[in-house]
Amino acid sequence: MKVLLAHNYFYIRGGAEVFFREVGRVLEERGHQVAYFSGQDAQNLLSRYESYFPSAPDYQQGNLVRRIAAFGGMVYSRNSKKNMLRLLKDFRPDIVHVFAVHIRLSPSILDACREYGVPVVMSCNDSKHMCPNYRLFHHGRLCEECKGGRFYRASVNRCCKDSLVFSVASSLEAYVHGAMDIYRKNIRLFLFASEFMARKTEEFWGADTFSWRMLRNPFDSRSHTCKAQTGDFLIYFGRLTEEKGLNVLIEAMQHLRHARLKIIGDGPMRTELEARVKTLSLDNVEFLGPKWGEDLDDILCRARFVVVPSIGHENFPYVILQSFAAGKAVIGADRGGIPELVRDGEFGLVYPAQDPAALARCISTLWDDPGKSETMGKAAKAWADKEYTDESFYENIMGIYREVAG
After folding, report:
1. 188-217 pLDDT per residue, tens
2. Cα–Cα nearest to 241, from 322, 170, 138
3. Architecture of domain 221-387 in CATH?
4. Are 363 and 308 in contact, with CB atoms under 8 Å apart?
5. CATH of 2-129+183-220+389-405 given 3.40.50.2000, 3.30.420.40, 3.40.140.10, 1.10.1660.10
6. Which residue among 80, 86, 351, 389 is least packed, with the fewest CB closer than 10 Å?
7. CB proximity list for 141: less than 8 A, separation 6 or greater
């Protein structure tokens, strides 16, 4: 089977890009021809298909006229559509699998696929299809005010980059795409990694207005093993952004002076979080900055357990799979798809998000009883090794492709 994968970025920025690239890897290793379609970027990895990659609209630079012109390309890029049609005609795929394509590529590429006559499936790894700011979250709180097509609420709340300009632009983008019904008219199947995201989409769109299947993240748990001895610290690893709930975690650590936390990652909140730790005189909290590859694996393997304290809705965090594969229990907030993975009392503990006291109690439970944490970690590892393999993912995705492509 010949598969064309489309995503905004051709370099690793986060979990969505890992998902995109891992799908390609699994397919290529099993003999399928895979083509890629992404936006041009200086950080892109090498690709034999880069000559097809369109330039992304630059709506953040230049004078007002240039930014307004770029906005049109963000909503519906004729250049992306033209390049996609060219790649479709040259590669002739049996199916197109798209991921995040808004803004940089724009959903115009979906019209290209329909005009060419190739079926499309779409993995929804964030909430952009429902929410102008991708997250169902802004200014420290969950938000569903745009439900029912009330996208003007994004402008009222300035929920896109805390900017009136970006929020108005994102509201208009959502209205245009809604009027065109550009997603549902072009996509045969929507794919979700969590039950939460699927059901939330049904709430916004209507359960009978689209077809969907579950496609969990590609991840080969068996390829991850730990040899290092468990140390005397717990960890958080990921982006340091508002919705990740680091403030809640730091507040919880005030009540756990005997426990040690290492925070791995970087992001716009790092300076604020470091200042908060200093103000509270928390000598049991340490910021390590971003870590990748073997450096991250070494710290993860030596951690007692992992905390995922998100206050925004997570879809299907890769950090949980990474933790399970390393044999680590996870303490997670009750947001989004986190409880589906952690399974309270089985592979870790689940607590009410934005409750530092409840989080502190969970941390204390596992910190004071290392045997309990180790037992949960072993159970998580056994489950991940069974459920998350290249073979199981391949069987699932090929079933979906065959269903759609006939």
Report:
1. 999 999 999 999 999 999 999 999 999 999
2. 138
3. 3-Layer(aba) Sandwich (3.40)
4. no
5. 3.40.50.2000
6. 86
7. none
